[in-house]
């Protein structure tokens, strides 16, 4: 199996058209009493890769299927370069879709799977073969044209599915958790290859995933959905460093919840220090403070009030689990070279980085 794509380039005969601008306007879709999309508004710029991220049932796959034309919204619009395509049949939309389950035809070779859409559109046989060969070469499978799905690995099948989606030169590429059925190493390799290919073609791409690592490593922007609503859409670094809502803060990455109390002048008292509050301030003074593990410090100290419960080594970083007075548990990520003395059972002094924090009302 080829593990890397060839140098990024466009097919020789004609490039994929420039990516289209995709707009969701007030999309609502309900299935009985279950609301899958609840007024979704989102704009994806030409050539951008946007990941739709969220827990199961948040509406991300429904949004993708609405763009593809496989679902009709109860209200709202989908625009492609300003044109309303909400009621346009799926086979007349300028979009290609790659499914989680590959969905290759088992009785067709890789070459014929890639060329299937061209055959449906009655493209001449010679042109179909040429286009299929170019695309198999583009996805790193130039010698696999005669193989059938059962003769290929999962990663190879997904590459064929990707080539098939690109065969009609769509202006939008839709990826529905395309890597979730693959093992970790293949998934990581193919993730990088899809991104390289997307950048080389300049195709607008919508990528549905529940995997934070995939979303943050691949996307230009990540749209976090919750209960059919858009919580935040931002570049990965902004999403992680400046989450707009407590849900985003806790869903993306790891987050500590520490008991605190609001003070005057927009400050909160937590773990023996005062920090500025970022975002909305609850009406109650009793709050929980959201703090990333990398913003927690821990220093070995025989007189410290915290106790190390466990230490997990992750190469350059070690994650500590500590118990604070009052039964509060906290995670701290330290450089491994600084964590040598912080073994289970050791005493420690815990501190917090001086930076703004999100707070939520504490349940009484």
Structural write-up:
There is one protein chain. Helices cover 23% and strands 33% of the residues. With 364 residues, the protein is an alpha+beta fold. Strands 6-7-8-3-9-10 form a 6-stranded mixed beta sheet, with helices on both faces. Strand 16 (306-314) and strand 17 (317-323) form a beta hairpin. Helix 2 crosses helix 3 (125-138) and helix 2 packs parallel to helix 4 (154-166). The chain is elongated. It starts with 21 loop residues before the first strand and ends with a strand. Mean pLDDT is 90; it is low at 1-16.
In short:
The chain is built from 8 helices and 20 strands. The protein is an alpha+beta fold and 364 residues long.
Strand order of the largest sheet: 6-7-8-3-9-10
Describe the global form: elongated
Total of DSSP H or I helical runs spanning 4+ residues: 8
Low-confidence stretches: 1-16
Mean pLDDT: 90
Helix and strand composition category: alpha+beta
List keywords for this structure.
alpha+beta; 364 residues; 23% helix
Please outline the helices and strands.
Blueprint lengths: L21 E10 L2 E11 L4 E5 L6 H9 L6 E6 L2 E2 L10 E4 L11 H11 L4 H14 L15 H13 L5 E5 L7 H18 L2 E6 L2 H7 L2 E6 L2 E6 L1 H6 L4 H6 L4 E7 L4 E4 L2 E4 L9 E6 L4 E5 L5 E9 L2 E7 L5 E7 L11 E6 L5 E4 L3
Parallel strand pairs: 3-8, 3-9, 6-7, 7-8
Antiparallel strand pairs: 1-2, 1-4, 4-5, 9-10, 11-12, 11-14, 12-13, 14-20, 15-19, 16-17, 16-19, 17-18
Helix pairs in contact: 2-3, 2-4, 3-4
């Amino acid at each position: 199996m080829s593990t890397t794509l060839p140098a990024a380039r466009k097919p020789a005969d004609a490039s994929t058209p420039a990516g289209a601008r995709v707009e969701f306007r007030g999309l609502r879709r309900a299935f009985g009493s279950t609301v899958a999309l609840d007024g979704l508004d989102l704009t994806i710029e030409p050539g951008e890769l946007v990941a739709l991220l969220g827990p199961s049932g948040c509406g991300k796959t429904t949004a993708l299927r609405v763009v593809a034309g496989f679902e009709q919204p109860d209200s709202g619009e989908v625009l492609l370069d300003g044109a309303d395509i909400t009621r346009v049949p799926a086979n007349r939309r300028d979009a290609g879709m790659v499914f989680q389950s590959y969905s290759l035809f088992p009785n067709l070779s890789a070459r014929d799977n890639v060329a299937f859409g061209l055959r449906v559109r009655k493209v001449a046989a010679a042109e179909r073969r040429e286009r299929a060969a170019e695309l198999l070469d583009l996805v790193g499978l130039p010698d696999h044209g005669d193989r059938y799905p059962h003769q290929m690995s999962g990663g190879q099948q997904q590459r064929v599915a990707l080539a098939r989606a690109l065969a009609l030169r769509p202006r939008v590429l839709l990826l529905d958790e395309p890597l979730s059925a693959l093992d970790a190493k293949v998934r990581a390799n193919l993730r990088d290859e899809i991104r390289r290919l997307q950048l080389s073609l300049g195709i607008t791409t919508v990528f549905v995933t529940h995997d934070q690592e995939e979303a943050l490593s691949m996307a230009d922007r990540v749209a976090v959905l919750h209960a059919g609503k858009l919580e935040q859409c931002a570049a990965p670094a902004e999403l992680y460093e400046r989450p707009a809502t407590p849900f985003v803060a806790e869903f993306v990455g790891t987050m500590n919840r520490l008991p605190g109390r609001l003070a005057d002048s927009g400050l909160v008292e937590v773990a023996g220090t005062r920090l500025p509050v970022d975002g909305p301030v609850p009406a109650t003074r009793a709050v929980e403070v959201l703090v990333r593990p990398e913003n927690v410090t821990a220093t070995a100290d025989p007189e410290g009030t915290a106790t190390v419960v466990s230490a997990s080594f992750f190469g350059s970083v070690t994650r500590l689990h500590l118990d604070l007075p009052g039964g509060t548990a906290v995670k701290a990520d330290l450089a491994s070279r600084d964590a040598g003395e912080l073994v289970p059972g050791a005493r420690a002094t815990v501190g917090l980085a001086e930076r703004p924090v999100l707070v939520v009302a504490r349940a009484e």
